[in-house]
Design a protein that fits this description.
Length: 483
């Protein structure tokens, strides 16, 4: 049976975090009543002129620096001509021959747990453009409505080389780009509101063949799960079509989440179909070295650099450091927790942030910034585990109390609820003697070779102190007494 190779490139439209549109002063706030945020510029009334939003350019520069691309000293806006009901001008202002960012790369993580591997995805370009409006087909009695609120919304379109070879790689890239855009503050990443949308160009070719197959573009994938499902279906469809003697026609397709299938929307246009030419109403965009350096100085520490620093400074594993740098909020929370607990407890802090805290946030659908337990409070809790004031099990009770607002600090809750760990060897030894005397049958089973009986005896000892005895001391003293 012939072996096939999948080839995928991704085009992403990231809505930029500006207060107004890219060529007008209209608001871009989400959720407004239809056509209440469309100015004369947005709907292309005669005689109006576009004025470039400097904030959108700042976002593009930040992105170029973050991916190591070349920020072009001169780029040009062009008119991309096509007709669609939600495009009132009859053209979209975009960039074509001279984009604002050229090249760059983004590292993605593949696999799970400690078996993570890294792959680099090369970027072709990133260019500024305006969004179109939106056609509405529901609740219009068989007709369609046009909402021009989105017309003119600033976008950065980010285009990769065809470097991905599976849906898993495509999703890993989309997640990495999504995280980076949020990290550097250029996009809120809200996929449900259309702030971050991906198009996947998918083709297949016989394994070993150099020439690319014919690609089909899956448009407007607004969730990572849908992206994986759409690509997997499209790949299987293309392979089956070719193996049945058919040909792949270049096309734009949509993914239907309800059926799990892709369906053709229109034949795919090429660049010449859009009749690009420089927009006569906009001067070339000039970005000088000083502007770039000012932007560089304002950039946060990037995820890769922060991950490497976490490994070096806090002696974390690459896996832990990667998990903690998945978002800037998580990374900052971790460092604030370490500051409160002490650097010697960094590994323990990493465990609490990436496991216990993350699980509770996920359960309640909250972001790190919405945690009821502050980093200082969690750091205080970790400090009490590190100095043996608390066992891990009792620490979970203290965490729960902090989460529910039952105290301002771990120390307050420990004193209020009498949760201080028993570490006095004499007291623990007396307790173990009582447990052994009361459980002669379990002692006999252990001495007969049944290890489970030892665990049962440990359980009895911990139960007698309501979990407050130091578990390690209980284990050591119990084994010593049992010979």
């Amino acid at each position: 049976m012939k072996q096939w190779e999948v080839v995928i490139g991704i085009e992403t439209h990231a809505q930029l975090l500006t207060q107004s549109k890219i060529f007008s002063g209209s608001s871009i706030a989400f959720g407004a009543q239809p056509n209440t945020q469309a100015s004369a510029v947005d709907i292309a009334l005669p005689g109006v002129l576009p004025v470039l939003n400097k904030g959108a350019v700042e976002c593009a520069i930040r992105f170029g620096l973050a991916v190591g691309g070349q920020v072009a000293p001169k780029s040009v806006f062009a008119r991309k001509n096509y007709f669609y009901p939600d495009l009132p001008k009859g053209y979209q202002i975009s960039q074509y021959e001279l984009p604002v960012v050229v090249g760059g790369k983004l590292a993605i993580q593949l696999g799970q747990g400690e078996t993570l591997t890294e792959k680099t995805i090369n970027l072709t370009r990133a260019h500024l453009e305006e969004d179109a409006g939106k056609s509405l087909h529901e609740d219009f009695h068989g007709k369609s409505g046009i909402d021009l609120n989105r017309a003119g919304t600033p976008l950065l379109e980010i285009v990769t080389e065809p470097d991905m070879r599976s849906s898993a790689e495509a999703v890993a890239y989309a997640k990495a780009l999504h995280a980076l855009a949020r990290w550097i503050g250029i996009c809120d990443g809200n996929m449900q509101e259309g702030s971050f949308r991906c198009d996947a160009n998918v083709s297949v070719r016989p394994l070993g063949q150099k020439e690319f197959g014919t690609r089909r573009e899956i448009k407007n994938l607004n969730s990572f799960r849908f992206m994986q499902q759409a690509i997997d279906y499209e790949v299987q469809w293309q392979i089956a079509t070719i193996e049945d003697g058919g040909r792949i026609e270049q096309a734009t397709v949509l993914f239907d989440p309800e059926t799990g299938e892709t369906r053709a929307m229109r034949s795919k246009e090429d660049a010449h179909d859009y009749r690009y030419f420089p927009d006569p109403d906009l001067l070339p965009l000039i970005i000088d070295r000083d502007w770039i350096e000012r932007s560089r100085a304002a950039m946060p520490e990037l995820p890769g650099a922060k991950r490497d620093r976490f490994v070096a400074e806090y002696a974390l594993s690459v896996y832990d450091a990667t998990t903690l740098t998945a978002s800037l909020d998580v990374a900052n929370y971790f460092e604030a927790t370490v500051a409160a607990a002490g650097k010697a407890s960094a590994k323990l802090c990493a465990n609490w942030v990436s496991v216990d805290l993350a699980a509770r946030l996920n359960k309640e659908g909250r972001e790190t910034g919405e945690s009821p337990v502050s980093a200082a409070q969690l750091g205080g809790l970790v400090a009490r585990i590190a100095d043996n004031t608390l066992s891990n099990n009792i620490a979970k009770k203290v965490f729960e109390a902090l989460w529910n607002g039952e105290g301002q600090s771990a120390d307050e809750i420990i004193e209020k609820q009498g949760l201080r760990q028993i570490t006095d060897s004499g007291a623990i030894e007396t307790l173990i003697d009582a447990v052994l005397a009361a459980n002669a049958a379990m002692v006999a089973e252990f001495r007969a070779g049944k290890e489970k009986a030892f665990n049962a005896l440990v359980g009895q000892a911990m139960k007698a102190t309501k979990g407050k005895a130091n578990p390690q001391q209980v284990n050591e003293l119990l084994r010593r007494k049992l010979g």
